[in-house]
Structure formats: C-alpha cells, structure tokens
Amino acid sequence: MTKVVVRDGKLDNALRTFKQKNMKNGLLKAVRERQEGYLKPGVRKRNAKKEAIRNSRKKSREFN
After folding, report:
1. H or E stretch including 26?
2. In angstroms, what CA-CA distances link 17 with 4, 26, 49, 64?
C-alpha cells in the first residue's frame, strides 16, 4: 500500500508523488495484467521482449 503525506494542504503535490510511487512499484501495470486474464506463454514472452526493446530505447535516449 502506497502512503503519501499531504503537507501544508498541497494536495496536488501529494497526488503527483502518489502517482510517481505507483509507477515505480508497477502497481497499475500489475492490475492491468490481471484484468487481461490468462496469456499464453508465447504471447507473454513476446510482450516482455517488446517492453525490453522499448525500455532500452528509452534508456539510450536519456543518455544522449
């Protein structure tokens, strides 16, 4: 469970922090995967490969 403290009544900052923490944890992604239901092993492997390619391209863009 992700917890965020609202300081000085700044709800926008707390909401932004909450969203960032959930992105890092992968909580939303896990929920979406569960909603899709069963994926065949080949499809799961294909999706993992696509995501790895996407992540490597994103990392290479950050360093350039």
Report:
1. none
2. 7, 14, 29, 27
Q: Which stretches of 1-64 are DSSP H helices? A: 11-25, 27-36, 41-63
How big is the chain, counted in residues? 64
Amino acid making up residue 37: G
At 32-53, the pLDDT tens digits run 888 989 999 999 999 999 999 9
Tokens of 46: 């294909």
Residue with tokens 């995501």: 51
pTM: 0.54
